[in-house]
Amino acid sequence: MVSHARRMLSLSQTFGQSTPCPYSNHKGDTIMNAVTWFEIPATDFDRAVRFYEGLLGITLERMLFGGTEPNGIFPSENGVGGAVAFVPYAKPSDEGAVIYLNARTSEVLDRALAQVEGLGGAVVMPKTDIGPMGKFALIRDTEGNRVGLHIAAGA
Known about the structure:
The chain is an alpha+beta fold. The chain has helices at 4-15, 45-56, 106-115; strands spanning 26-27, 30-31, 37-41, 61-65, 69-73, 81-85, 100-102, 122-129, 135-140, 146-151. The chain has a four-stranded mixed β-sheet.
């Protein structure tokens, strides 16, 4: 079993000591966001990657961490990075912490919610207005994870 620390070490080895990891948002000792990395556990990696690519209209970059663990990296520019991950130390769950993926626009959020069931997931909570913080919805993915989709106010 690969520990979380070993996984992070694998990330640094993958991107080298002189090249900052493009999925990190550290600047010196200052962390720019409260969250720096997330993993959505998958029991069927290919199914989960297809789900998120279809849901959000994006392409996940497939990589092996530690030489054996497949990951589908979400596109990110200068922000929090994360992946769909097939890892032995985590199992999908609809209990516990919830991560919120950036759906970018109201149109993307609406389209995602309209197609989530056809992709094998389920809508847990419909699009909900949260005032100046935007709108969000909760879904259950093909692996059983409860995941939020969020858009900023005015998006």
